[in-house]
Design brief:
The chain has 4 helices and 7 strands. The mean pLDDT is 89. 37% of the residues lie in helices and 44% in strands.
């Protein structure tokens, strides 16, 4: 009976240790994926929203970026470096143009040129309905650059990767 009790206690402690390890000691890839999922969550919009909620979401998105961000989107002739302070107003402007917004990320491919830098290739799916009622459903291949600042991964670059059509 004592051995069964001790074995049960040891199993519970081992299970708690495994859960704690998974929660507190995630890999860099898992931490970066969380950043993308957080970005998609904050970009999501379904119908009208109060200006304060929109401002809060824009600010939360801005917090995912560091310093200046290089944005390259050849399909829209965009190639510029944006200071972090301008991200929130840009997000607010974009959100105001759409009634509904959905952003999803798939097919993550990680490269770590150094311990403090990551390049993530992925597929981004943007679905939206404009205020005019026009629907958008766009798929992009993207390479994002992130840097590890104070043990937190922050975006420093976003580049659309042009894919040849068949």
């Amino acid at each position: 009976m004592v051995n069964l009790k001790n074995s049960l206690i040891a199993a519970i402690i081992a299970a708690a240790a495994v859960v704690a390890f998974l929660v507190f000691f995630q890999s860099d890839e898992a931490k970066i994926k969380k950043k993308f999922h957080h970005l998609a969550e904050k970009a999501h919009k379904n119908g009208s929203e109060h200006d304060l909620i929109a401002a809060k979401k824009a600010h939360q998105i801005e917090q995912l970026f560091f310093g200046t961000v290089r944005i390259q989107i050849p399909s829209y002739s965009v190639d510029k470096t944006v200071p972090r302070s301008e991200i929130s107003p840009q997000v607010l402007y974009a959100r105001a143009r759409y009634q509904n917004i959905s952003l999803k990320f798939h097919d993550f491919q990680f490269t770590f040129p150094s311990e403090e830098k990551a390049v993530v290739g992925l597929t981004g799916i943007f679905k939206a309905v404009a205020a005019s009622g026009e629907a958008f459903n766009e798929i992009y291949e993207v390479a994002c650059t992130l840097e590890k600042i104070d043990n937190d991964w922050l975006f420093t670059g976003i580049k659309e990767v042009e894919v040849l059509e068949r």
